[in-house]
Amino acid sequence: MNRFVEAQAPVWDDVQAELRAGHKTSHWMWFIFPQLAALGRSGTAKFYGLSDAEEAKAYLAHPVLGTRLVHCCELLLAVKDRSALDIFGGIDAMKLRSSLTLFDAVAPAQPVFRDCLERYFDGEPDGLTLGLLQGRGAAGAAPTR
């Protein structure tokens, strides 16, 4: 988990400010809202990608990373009148959906992930993420994130 803590340290204040403003302007998506590594295409996406549900649980259980992830979701829920596309742009909105799906699947008792999926994606989880978690792979699809 050190790779995430180290990556977040210099940008954490910016992340919070951008989420509060409802407009992401810098580069931090990979290590703030991580997704499964199998979905990543770039080296950065793969480096910060989580290997499986167990690593996602470890991320969420980490005293810094889990707290920050929940806090970021709470900040997102406080944004008014903006879509995920407005806040993140197309590629990062897709990464957000994947990340929320992953953490909702591994921590169903934590409502903030489901709440964000409801708010920003009409409650629809990312099918590729669910497929990977259920051992079906990405249904033959090439990684797009």
Automatic annotation (TrEMBL):
SUPFAM superfamilies per record: Rv1873-like
UniProt name for this protein: DUF1810 domain-containing protein
